[in-house]
Design brief:
The chain is an alpha/beta fold. The chain has a single domain, classed as Aldolase class I (TIM Barrel, Alpha-Beta Barrel), CATH 3.20.20. The protein contains 10 helices and 8 strands. It has an 8-stranded parallel β-barrel, surrounded by 7 helices.
């Protein structure tokens, strides 16, 4: 267990009881440009978001340096490794999976560093606990631990993580479930009941009712991403709702 004295970070305090919006776009998507990410981020803040979750050094830099970014809106930064193929992401950590990525996003202006804290072996051989300790000591930043299971959440807590999140529930080989199945409420409840640090619900949150339920279960904050900032996925959900057989329009004789 970490012997580090617990620090109350202002950036984490600013997130309490709020909505965090994940503004991300994958390579090749129309919104995959820093100026578009900035527009999404500012729109989210205008709607009441208390924090942002951003991927990539350039995106973080552009948002952080914007004169329009409201003071007191923390940025949780991460890097998704391009070296890990999409089809391998259930097997290998790909969210800030090495210290150099953590250092890069810290230098770009991230207030909180998010990383994969699952039990899966990291590409560089390091452990999540080692990463958490190094980020604290060398970058002086709080760590947001993305986990998929209760055991991983407790391990991250014992390693000194400042936030534990359900982000990767449903996205690892051990926990894989269909995207349509909804958020990991049971995992959230377990973590809330055993954690001494803030627990955040993230992953497959599409409905306001799910946000409400998360807070009723004790979530410190809730992250919503695709349901707000991924237009192609939002459109796809509506398109899929179109029935295969539709009543024919009546004709006037």
């Amino acid at each position: 267990m970490s012997t580090r004295k617990h620090i109350v970070w202002q950036s984490i305090k600013d997130l309490e009881g709020g909505l965090i919006v994940s503004c991300q776009a994958s390579a090749g998507e129309p919104l995959a440009a820093p100026t578009h990410i900035l527009a999404l981020a500012l729109s989210a803040i205008a709607g009441g978001a208390k924090g942002l979750r951003l991927e990539g050094v350039e995106n973080i830099q552009v948002v952080k340096r914007s004169s329009r970014l409201r003071i007191g809106v923390p940025i949780c930064g991460l890097v998704k490794s391009a070296k890990v193929a999409h089809e391998d992401r259930t097997k290998v950590p790909y969210i800030t999976n090495c210290y150099s990525d953590a250092a890069a996003i810290a230098n770009a202006g991230a207030d909180i560093i998010a990383l994969d804290a699952t039990a899966r072996p990291r590409p560089d051989g390091s452990t999540a606990a080692e990463m958490i300790d190094k980020i604290h000591k060398e970058l002086d930043k709080p760590v947001w631990a993305d986990v998929a299971t209760f055991a991983e959440g407790i391990a991250a807590l014992e390693a000194g993580a400042d936030i534990v999140s359900t982000t990767l529930f449903g996205y690892t080989e051990e926990t894989m479930i269909p995207r349509e199945q909804g958020p990991g409420f049971e995992l959230l409840k377990e973590l809330v009941n055993h954690s001494s640090v803030p627990v955040i619900l993230e992953g497959r949150v599409w409905l306001p009712e799910e946000v409400k339920q998360a807070f009723e279960l004790g979530a410190y904050a809730v992250v919503v991403g695709s349901a707000i900032t991924r237009p192609h996925l939002i459109t796809e959900r509506f398109v899929k709702s179109i029935p295969a057989r539709r009543p024919k329009k009546s004709t006037v004789s």
